[in-house]
Automatic annotation (TrEMBL):
InterPro entries associated with the record: Cyclin-like_dom (IPR013763), Cyclin-like_sf (IPR036915), Cyclin-Q_first_cyclin_box (IPR048055), Cyclin-Q_second_cyclin_box (IPR048053), Cyclin/Ssn8 (IPR043198), Cyclin_N (IPR006671)
PANTHER family, alphabetized: CYCLIN (PTHR10026)
Membrane spanning residue stretches: none
Region (Disordered): 1-23
Record-given protein name: Cyclin-Q
Acetylation listed as a keyword: yes
Keyword Acetylation among record annotations: yes
Listed GO CC annotations: cyclin-dependent protein kinase holoenzyme complex
Primary gene name: CCNQ
Keyword terms, alphabetized: Acetylation, Cyclin
Organism: Myotis lucifugus
Pfam families associated with the record: Cyclin_N, CycT2-like_C
C-alpha cells in the first residue's frame, strides 16, 4: 500500500544484530518517530506524550504484526492533537512523515496516492478509538514533576541546585520514558518521583536532612510510593537507554 511505501525505509523489520526486530525494538523506533514528528509539527510536550500513550495502549491490545505501526503512529498523532486541543492537519502529518522517511524530499502531490494515505490515517483513527474503547485521555506525570521540582528547589541549597542540571535531566528522563510503556504501567506521580530520584542519583545530590527525617523525601511527595516501585521504574528506564545504544 502507499502507506507502507511511505514508511518502508522507516519500518524496523530487522534488528541491528541481524535477526527480526523484537516488539520492544519496533515500538522504540516508532515512538522515536512520534516524538520527532511531534516536534516538527509544533506539538507541545503533553500532546506528544498522549500520542505515545495512545500508540502503546493500542499495541497492548493488538499484535504488532496486525497493523503497520507507523500508520498507527500517524493516527495517534492526529488523535492526540484533538484530545489535547492542539489539532493537526492530516496533510501536515503526512508531509512531516514523508520527510522523516525520505529526508530532503518535496511535499507529496495531492494525487490519488496522497488521498489513500489520508483516508488510511482517518480509518486507522477510528480503529484506534474502537480498540481503546474511546478511552484516550491520560494523566501524565508532567504537572507532578513540575510541582516536585519547585518543592525540591526550595529544600536544596542554592549552590547544589545551580551547579547540577537536575531539572533538565529529570525532564529528559520523563520524555524518554515514553519510548516504553511506563505511562501505562505506573502511576503518574510515581513516574515523576522516580525520574527525579534518578536525576539526583546521577549527580550525587542528597536531599538535606533526609537521614533525620521520619520518611524519605520521595514518600513526602507520594505517600503510597515504595522503594521497589521506584526501582522498577528506574529499571525500565535503564532498559530503554540500553535499547537506545543498540538501535541506530
Amino acid at each position: 500500500s502507499r502507506v507502507q511505501e511511505l514508511g518502508s525505509e522507516g519500518t524496523c523489520q530487522r534488528a541491528p544484530r541481524g535477526g527480526p526486530a523484537t516488539p520492544g525494538e519496533v515500538h522504540f523506533r516508532v515512538t522515536r518517530f512520534i516524538m520527532e514528528a511531534g516536534v516538527k509539527l509544533g506539538m507541545q510536550s503533553i500532546p506528544v506524550a498522549t500520542a505515545c500513550a495512545i500508540y502503546h495502549k493500542f499495541f497492548c491490545e493488538i499484535n504488532v504484526d496486525a497493523y503497520d505501526p507507523y500508520l498507527v503512529a500517524m493516527s495517534a498523532l492526529y488523535l492526540a492533537g484533538k484530545v489535547e486541543e492542539q489539532p493537526l492537519r492530516t496533510r501536515d502529518i503526512i508531509n512531516v512523515s514523508n520527510r522523516y522517511f525520505h529526508p530532503g524530499s518535496e511535499p507529496l502531490e495531492l494525487d490519488s496516492g496522497f488521498w489513500v494515505i489520508r483516508d488510511s490515517i482517518v480509518q486507522c483513527e477510528l480503529l484506534v478509538l474502537r480498540v481503546l474503547r474511546f478511552q484516550v485521555s491520560f494523566q501524565h506525570p508532567h504537572k507532578y514533576l513540575l510541582h516536585y521540582l519547585i518543592s525540591l528547589k526550595n529544600w536544596l541549597n542554592r549552590y547544589s541546585w545551580q551547579r547540577t542540571p537536575i531539572s533538565v535531566t529529570a525532564w529528559a528522563l520523563l520524555r524518554d520514558s515514553y519510548h516504553g510503556g511506563l505511562c501505562l504501567r505506573f502511576q503518574a506521580q510515581h513516574i515523576a518521583v522516580a525520574v527525579l530520584h534518578l536525576a539526583l542519583q546521577v549527580y550525587g545530590v542528597e536531599v538535606p536532612a533526609e537521614a533525620e527525617a521520619e520518611k524519605p523525601w520521595w514518600q513526602v511527595f507520594s505517600d503510597d510510593l515504595t522503594k521497589p516501585i521506584i526501582d522498577n521504574i528506574v529499571s525500565d528506564l535503564i532498559q530503554i537507554y540500553t535499547m537506545d545504544t543498540e538501535i541506530p
